[in-house]
Amino acid sequence: MKDLESLSASQAVKALAKREIKASDLLLSCLDRIGQRENVLKAWVSLGKENALARAKTLDKGAIKGLLHGLPMGVKDLFDTYDLPTAYGSPIYAKHYPNTDAVSVALLRQAGAIILGKTVTTEFASFKSGPTSNPHDSVHTPGGSSSGSAAAVADFMIPLATGSQTAGSIIRPASFCGIVGYKPTYGKISVAGVKSLAPSFDTLGCFGRTVEDVALGVAAMSGDIPLARVEGLHNKARIAICKTPDWHLASKETASALALARFTAQSIAKGQVGDFIFPESQKDLRAIQTRIMLSEMSRSLAFEREHYPKKMSVQILKQLSDGAQISYRQYQQDLLEAQSAGAYIDQLLRDELDLIIAPSAIGEAPLLKDGTGDPVFCRSWTLLGLPCINLNIASGSNGLPIGIQLIARKGQDSFLLSAARAFALASPDPILRDQA
Amino acid sequence: MKDLESLSASQAVKALAKREIKASDLLLSCLDRIGQRENVLKAWVSLGKENALARAKTLDKGAIKGLLHGLPMGVKDLFDTYDLPTAYGSPIYAKHYPNTDAVSVALLRQAGAIILGKTVTTEFASFKSGPTSNPHDSVHTPGGSSSGSAAAVADFMIPLATGSQTAGSIIRPASFCGIVGYKPTYGKISVAGVKSLAPSFDTLGCFGRTVEDVALGVAAMSGDIPLARVEGLHNKARIAICKTPDWHLASKETASALALARFTAQSIAKGQVGDFIFPESQKDLRAIQTRIMLSEMSRSLAFEREHYPKKMSVQILKQLSDGAQISYRQYQQDLLEAQSAGAYIDQLLRDELDLIIAPSAIGEAPLLKDGTGDPVFCRSWTLLGLPCINLNIASGSNGLPIGIQLIARKGQDSFLLSAARAFALASPDPILRDQA
To answer: Which one of A431, B153, B369, B380 is at 20 to 30 Å from A277 when CA atoms are compared?
Structure first.
């Protein structure tokens, strides 16, 4: 019964389905780990220990319910839960008890998951950070906005946790914490019951310690059960590295990580791993993403700004006021440019490429006092709605993780997971192989 | 001060902005009308008279707040409101008091609207009808799911009300009640805070008695303020009639209405009004829409089905169980077909056509005992995400209204409103002209 908390989600669900381990024992191991580490990590907003334990015992007795039978999970506190308070990272909602689950949470429970608690999010999934620290070094940020979920999974408190990304809120914390983060295709998982920030981009996903783990999580949250089975890569893939127009911002460590990724990718590549450069007309995708996001935020949070401005941070009020300054005409034009860039990349990912590899973040996690880091290397891919997965590939000079992201065509989630797994398995490095 | 309730929304906001009428007087006129007719119509779930009156008085004293300054409105009881209970048409949520407004409602209030109350929706915006009757004949249905909003606007209880459409829930009740109903382009208005039914289709919009009214409503709900100014049609439009593959279901009255629409459209048409026939490969759009909707519903309402099956109607439980039977593979294939049909129609609406005119419903409103009517003539357009507007064009053999819908390319909302207004103005018939 020792060290059950170190099982990956996919290991755990296999053992649970065969009744080799008990859901209640796994849960207790996770609670032990949380007990030891939470005072440093501060990953959790709330824990529903008793409910979780009761459910674990019920699941241990009953028939296998689904993909995640008996698996304890953390849920980002941006997702409504009927049995745990849901504050969206804001004091405005400090005493908010939803009477329903977010659709994605209901589907997790339907698949047999045990929702152990809610994890720290930044304020409304924007930039004002919560208290969570990086499991690898507690003076650094775990990244945001899905801070608590990423930290808790990286720290073996929980095998699987939900996240959401509007700019870089899954990929960036996964990179900073050295775990697998998966943002599926835009629209794959219903966002109903998750606090809305920018509806054109808000995408749900999850964190795990392996590719198979995040496949399981998104399979259950979306209802796409076949997605859970990560198949081998049938054919070699056409792969390109994309340094993005913001490459000058990347740290040396990120540059090395990308070089290493190019080398590793070669063994699953058809021909040479190439380079993808955004056409001149699309150099501005990052700025377009930022404007659309701010414009939509100013509408999404209109109620809170009207009623509770004093309970909002200076940072977010500035974002809302910046967003309100953007003309609707500009916003519409930006949406059209996004659409046209989307059509371009879709065609490219049919005709010439299967997989793009790009940096996940500027470099290692910044210090806590400097915020949750910059989503700059995620904005374009989020704008385009493409499925992205972060893998931990190296360490930086502070000994903190450096990730890279693999990106595929819209709707090609199943292929992306296969490619990510094959990529990890192709590496001689146990860091990567352990994420397969 | 008499008959203020008969002002259209656009007439009212002009008079309010010039301080020619008082918001409180307009509100009292509406309340009078409601007092006289609600026992027959049963359009309202709740009224917030005192709050509304207090706000009207405040608005009468303060600076002009926005597009809808002082305008009383009805909000479909599928939209969250922080000051009125929100039951989504279901006994499960009978005592649900949200602590926030839906984003669209917050934006209406930001524009100065007064939310007078919540209007009847069918159960979760699906088919199980509420108590509302048709203002033209109380033994007939007003249509659904936005039953109360359509009936209240048609009956002069309120000049403007919100609606939502997943299959045909704006266009059909607008047709049955003889008013203007406007479903903008999919995604135009944030759906956050509105109970989700099928996220691929859920679209918010509104009901008014003129094209200018619904333009005002959607301008405020979306934040696209320039949309409120409905300009004249700059050029004659390329127009086609689409009878749809379900034409055999249309009543004789609907056939006559469409013939009349063809005749009327001629005066704003470039060349002859043509015919658009869905290509053979797209004859099945209606079935595809139905399957996607049922599949998504089975996920969207998973929480309710798990926790409160006994508080759900037999009809909706049947839909959920039908939806759960649809394989994810089928669902994905249907989404791809929808996408490909969308690309086809987008190209057609660039190259060959500006405007499509189609039936809104099978015919007149059915009897109350027979349900809220069939959304068959709306499903394809909803699937394609195109903006649609219903105009009342004729009466049937029972003296009940018959509508037709005008449809434009995705994103061409401003053009659609101009075309609808020009179409109405081009008619010698006061029924149509009064809707301009």
So the answer is: A431
- From chain A, pick out residues whose CB is under 8 angstroms from the CB of B82: 303, 307
Distance, in Å, from the CA atom of A406 to the CA atom of A378, rounded to the nearest integer, reads 11
Å between B25 CA and nearest CA of chain A: 26
Q: What is the pLDDT of residues A126-141, one digit of tens each?
A: 999 999 999 999 999 9
* Side chain identity, residue A174: A
Check if the beta carbon of residue A16 is closer than 8 Å to that of residue A24.
Answer: no
Question: CA B355, CA A272: separation in Å to the nearest integer?
Answer: 49
- Catalytic, out of B42, B76, B118, B183: B76
Residue B249, CA distances (Å) to A74, B362, B383, B395 in order:
51, 6, 19, 18
Question: Which of the following is catalytic: B133, B169, B200, B295?
Answer: B169
Quote the pLDDT of residue B15.
Answer: 97
Phi and psi for A251 in degrees, rounded to 5? Answer: -75, 165
Instruction: Write out the E strands in A77-159.
Output: 114-119
- Architecture of the domain defined by B36-46+74-436: Alpha-Beta Complex (3.90)
Q: What does the block give as tokens for A391? A: 């893998």
- Average pLDDT on A271-298 reads 96
Q: Are strands B239-241 and B274-275 parallel, antiparallel or unpaired?
A: parallel
Q: What is the average pLDDT score of chain B?
A: 97
CATH number of this structure's domain A4-228 = 3.90.1300.10
Active site (annotated) includes residue B340: no
Number of CB pairs, chain A paired with chain B, less than 8 A apart: 85
Check if the interface score ipTM surpasses 0.90: yes
- 0.90 exceeded by pTM: yes
Q: Find the length of chain B.
A: 436
**Preceding peptide of A24 cis, ω within 30°:** no
Q: What is the length of chain A?
A: 436
Yes or no: say if B41 and B138 are a contact pair by the CB < 8 Å rule.
yes
- Measured CA to CA, the distance from residue B354 to residue B152 in angstroms comes to 32
Euclidean distance between CA atoms A73 and A21, whole angstroms: 16
Which candidate, A130, A113, A123, A58, places its Cα nearest to that of A90?
Answer: A123
CB A183 within 8 A of CB A173: no
pLDDT digits (tens, 9 = 90+) for B366-385: 999 999 999 999 999 999 99
Closest of B317, B260, B322 to residue B291, by C-alpha? B322
Compare all CA atoms of chain A with the CA of B308 and give the residue at the minimum distance: A100
Alpha-carbon span B59 to B19, nearest angstrom? 11
Span A33-60, pLDDT tens digits:
999 999 999 999 999 999 999 999 999 9
DSSP B337-370: HHHHHHHHHHHHHHHT-SEEEEESSSSSPPBGGG
